[in-house]
Amino acid sequence: MCGVAGIFHAFRPAPPDLASLRAMADLMSHRGPDGDGFHVEPHVGLAHRRLAIVDLAGGAQPMATADGNVVISFNGEIYNHVALRRELTGLGHRFRSNSDTESILLGWREWGVDVLRRLDGMFAFALWDAEQGQLLLARDRLGEKPMHLARLPDGGWVFASEIAALLAVRGVSDRIDPAAVDDFLALGYVPDPGTIYADIRTLRPAHALLLRRDEEVAVEICYWTAPTRAASPPSDPAAELAARLGQAVRDRLMADVPLGSFLSGGLDSGSVTAMAAAATQGLSTFTIGFEGASDERGVAAQVAWRLGTRHHAIAGQADYVGMAGQQAAVFGQPFGDHSAVPTMAVCALARRHVKVALSGDGGDEVFAGYRRHRFHSLADGVRRMLPPGLRRHVIGGLAAAYPAMHGAPRWLRARSTLTELSLDSALGYYRMVCKMQAQTRRELFSARARVGLDGHDPSARFVALMDCCDPDDPLLQAQYADLHTYLPGDILTKLDRTSMAVSLETRPPLLAHGLVEWGLALPAGLKLRQGVGKRVLREAMASRLPPAVLHGAKQGFAATIGPQFRAQSQALRVRLTGEAMQDCGLFDIQALTRLVDAHAAGQGDHSQALWQLLVMEGFLRGRGRERIPAEAALVRS
Q1: What is the CA radius of gyration of the chain?
Q2: pLDDT band at 320 (very low <50, low <70, confident <90, very high)
């Protein structure tokens, strides 16, 4: 796990500015505290920050082939590098190190861009071939590792693992994109390929960008796609899943440094930890709990005792009002998932003992574990029984007439349910994942911002994605949408940035791409049955985990922030009506005041919206240029 940065000029033969490369690398020192490296030649400059995990002595980067013609700056891990090494050696290539990075270099020499399809791992890298005059920027299939890029005023390109590094280069614009602000308020993150900045883009997962010397046009390549239809069911799906997950975990135990596992008390992290404990001795596990609904330390301790791990657990308290202002320093742009706070805390706990940690991320997306999957499947069944006109006009009319009841349990919030039923399938699912509905967002924006947003609709990407899938499989449609939006935009962004902030490498075995392909293509009944998600995973782990994990309700990894925001309503009001929010011209300050007051008075739970707005305010104060503060990972214990 490392930091990658670089500059490329297609038409300028002079080497890029080394000082700019150093500045970019310096801003990502947390991603690679074990050393840095630079390579500069005509047209291209590469920078690297190293977190040494594999081949500690021989894996320094940027790494070049023996003749110096191909150079790479690489972030991630290639789990099948031993098999690739064997194959490439048989084809006549000679390796000079034990690093997985070298398998990409020599794989490029043998297969060109097709090397991407042979890599099993998480990665983002920049590879320069001086002989061919080509620069390849690539990102892994699911988006575990990041890559951002921007054009310079003189036509050059600049790229890096983190947005803040790009802003260190003179000429990179920090102009805010109002449509991205709308996306952020709607979803809680800015979806790929956008960023909060109008002129900075994100390379999409499973994509590569090929830049050529003396050519203006960049060629974008998609080298992998997820299944869009279910396949025939396996003869013994639970046994096959156990075997596949076991192999994925064993692959991800590859390290020359101490390794552990997160253990939240849930099914996903418990499954990964159980497989890891069976494959290695003395596994360390890590849990953080917050008093109340999100404290799963007791269940996690049961699992740790059963598996015989070296368990580390702490209790924590977090000042969410204060932490909101630090999110932009960690993420480089607004990020609205407040579970990032405890996630960073458990990463900091793990980093005291290990350098690599396995995580359970991805299980909900691959095996249909979210409550919204269940609700969407039920709603779609009802939609199919009702004529479109009846749904849109009659049920839509009932929804408009029903009281909102925002704070009530979902089964009492008939207005939400009726509204979702009145919409077509994709729009109904988008409404479930939306953090802040369109009317609320429009009321918070200033009149000028509303005019600029005319025609922008965050739901459009969900409609396009779900249209790619089998129309008779609404569950797969929802999973496919999650895989291309929420997973890379929220879950994996959170995992990468919070772990890298404390120099910890994290690996999610449930996102091994072969396992993802297999899991998504399962018939819906093996994933969701009788209102219970992840059925096949529960069956696969039945003999390995206690009933409290197998049958417990999903709790999530976030403390309740509503009461804290009510208690600190004055501080919220000061922050949200202050200079940063006024000067940006994006928001109606009176509307922000009304939202704070409504939450303080108990007129609905607006904690998610307030958290996102606090994060936005913190971003506007610093524009994501701050260094990550040393206290950012601290949760009072």
Answers
A1: 24
A2: confident
